[in-house]
Design the sequence.
């Protein structure tokens, strides 16, 4: 109501009616008639409670805006909660990825150690096989040398015996060998 009175005073002070000539409070003065019409219009608006309806509409609009603000705050809080949840999940996934990488590195190191051990065992087996081959070749060479030595010794003995033996000594040796074989077979 105080607004209305303040508005009315402002309108009358700034009115061109004060600049008009002649009596102001006369129905012939158009400014006076316009003022009366305006006051009646405002009175009808007040009688029909238009300012309270406008206030009610503004209050409803303010309540709607407040509801939208509350909803926006709730959505913002929900978004922040979701963001925090996703950040937590992202951190957990990153930690899990770090654990997987560390585990893979450990497994790779273990596999490398196992491969080194297998390589050492393989080298040891090959060295042993080579040593066995060398030993076998050495034994074969010694046997071959002995066999050759025996062949040479037999040949030398045969030559020596052939030069020193007479026919009667040979016959005696043959008879002794036959008797020896006969004794061993029966």
Sequence:
């Amino acid at each position: 109501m105080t607004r209305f009175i303040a508005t009315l005073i402002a309108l009358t002070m700034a009115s061109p009616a004060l600049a008009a000539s002649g009596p102001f409070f006369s129905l012939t003065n158009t400014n006076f008639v316009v003022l009366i019409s305006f006051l009646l219009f405002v009175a009808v608006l007040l009688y029909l409670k238009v300012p309270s309806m406008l206030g009610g509409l503004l209050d409803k609009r303010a309540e709607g805006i407040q509801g939208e603000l509350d909803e926006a705050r709730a959505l913002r809080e929900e978004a922040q909660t979701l963001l925090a949840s996703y950040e937590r999940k992202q951190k957990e996934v990153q930690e899990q990825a770090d654990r997987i990488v560390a585990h893979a590195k450990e497994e790779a190191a273990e596999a490398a150690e196992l491969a080194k051990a297998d390589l050492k065992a393989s080298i040891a087996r090959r060295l042993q096989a080579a040593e066995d081959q060398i030993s076998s070749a050495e034994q074969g060479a010694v046997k071959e040398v002995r066999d050759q030595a025996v062949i040479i010794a037999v040949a030398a003995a045969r030559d020596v015996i052939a030069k020193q033996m007479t026919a009667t000594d040979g016959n005696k040796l043959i008879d002794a060998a036959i008797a020896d074989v006969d004794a061993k077979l029966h």
Summary: The chain has four helices and no strands. Residues 65 and 71 are 10 Å apart (CA to CA).
